[in-house]
Design goal:
Layout: E1 2-5, H1 12-15, E2 17-20, E3 30-40, H2 42-49, E4 65-73, E5 85-88, E6 104-108, E7 112-114, H3 121-139, E8 148-151, H4 157-168, E9 172-177, H5 180-189, E10 193-196, H6 202-209, E11 215-220, H7 223-232, E12 234-242, H8 255-260, E13 264-267, H9 275-290, E14 298-303, H10 307-316, E15 322-326
Parallel strand pairs: 8-9, 8-11, 9-10, 11-12, 12-13, 14-15
Antiparallel strand pairs: 1-2, 3-4, 3-6, 3-15, 4-5, 5-7
Helix pairs in contact: 3-4, 3-9
């Protein structure tokens, strides 16, 4: 099969190699997917660059999300059949070296989900880690119907899905953004109100919207950087669901303030969550996809041989949506 890999970390054009590798066979409990599309997430770029951790394997095929067609079934698999359209996540995670920047991937069937016929493979490749993270951050503690949810970075890959899923789940949604263009994207996703944190006072806008009650749940892309503001807008018995932190990776936790409002801090990283929660997320995302038209933001598309350019596009950071690698071309 044609694949892209790296054997040392560094700049994408320097370390990524395009070539031929043996096509893998599905083992027990696995399916093999003929990939049509691969989604590039910031974490994929971070691993390849060496910013996250040292190399865990002698050779790595990057990217963890994808979509395609099941073309081989391993022993014991009953959920899928050859020919099924699917999307997948955590391809290059959980002790796996080979991700989705290739023509084929084999992986455990619980990481694979049916893709509705009206959702394109490119759109399916945007779901993966962003969609699963958004669902888990929103619903891991139960239903959110009637709650007020604040999504930080409402135009980002996770945030954009969080806004849509929160509305589907019956919540009122506030989104924060950093530009007028992102304001439009957050509103198209369904946000009830949008706050530009660079030009507006987040606390006053949020408290006005909630009639000084505060929000029930925050879906937070930058826990450390946002914490001082977040504490001022939380309602009693509320939750901060944290899936990333960039501005301050070692924040001081004001425990007394958290206690006085009975605020729960729920941290999550997708590859460490229990399989039953992941299964619930997959089932709900399927219902959500099938119940209406959804917005899947694609920032750009590159051929498999252009995976280095795709990584550079993510690193540049000026695009809205997920960068896609077309594995079939």
């Amino acid at each position: 099969m044609k694949a892209v890999w790296y054997e040392r970390t560094g700049a994408a054009p320097t370390v990524l190699t395009v070539g031929e590798m043996p096509t893998p066979d599905a083992g027990p409990g696995e399916v093999r997917v003929r990939l049509e599309a691969s989604g590039v997430n910031p974490a994929d770029v971070g691993r390849r660059s060496g910013n996250y951790r040292a190399m865990e394997f002698p050779r790595v095929i990057p990217n963890s999300d994808g979509a395609g067609i099941v073309d081989q079934i391993g022993e014991g698999v009953t959920r899928f059949a050859v020919g099924d359209r699917v999307w997948l996540f955590n391809g290059q995670r959980n002790g796996r070296a080979f991700g989705t920047a290739a023509e084929y991937i084999t992986l455990a069937d619980y990481l694979v989900t049916p893709l509705p016929p009206d959702v394109s493979f490119a759109a399916g490749a945007t779901l993966g880690i962003p969609g699963m993270t958004a669902w888990c951050a929103l619903f891991a503690d139960g239903p959110i119907s009637g709650q007020t949810v604040l999504v930080t970075g409402g135009a980002g890959a996770v945030g954009h899905y969080a806004v849509q899923l929160a509305k589907w789940g019956g919540a009122r949604v506030i989104a924060t953004v950093s530009s007028e263009v992102k304001d439009v994207e957050a509103r198209l996703a369904g946000a009830d109100t949008v706050v530009n944190y660079r030009t507006e006072d987040v606390v006053s806008k949020v408290m006005a919207f909630t009639e000084n009650r505060g929000v029930d749940r925050v879906i937070d892309v930058d826990f450390g950087g946002n914490l001082a503001t977040t504490l001022k807008i939380m309602a009693l018995n509320s939750t901060i669901a944290v899936y990333a932190t960039n501005g301050n990776r070692t924040p001081v936790l004001p425990v007394r303030e958290l206690m006085e409002k009975c605020i729960t801090v729920r941290s999550l990283v997708l590859f460490a969550l229990p399989p039953p929660l992941l299964a619930a997320a997959q089932a709900d995302i399927t219902k959500w996809l099938e119940s209406g038209t959804r917005v899947h933001n694609i920032a750009g598309q590159f051929a498999l041989a252009e995976t280095a350019e795709a990584h550079l596009a993510v690193e540049k950071g000026d695009k809205i949506g997920t960068v896609i690698v077309d594995c079939a071309r």
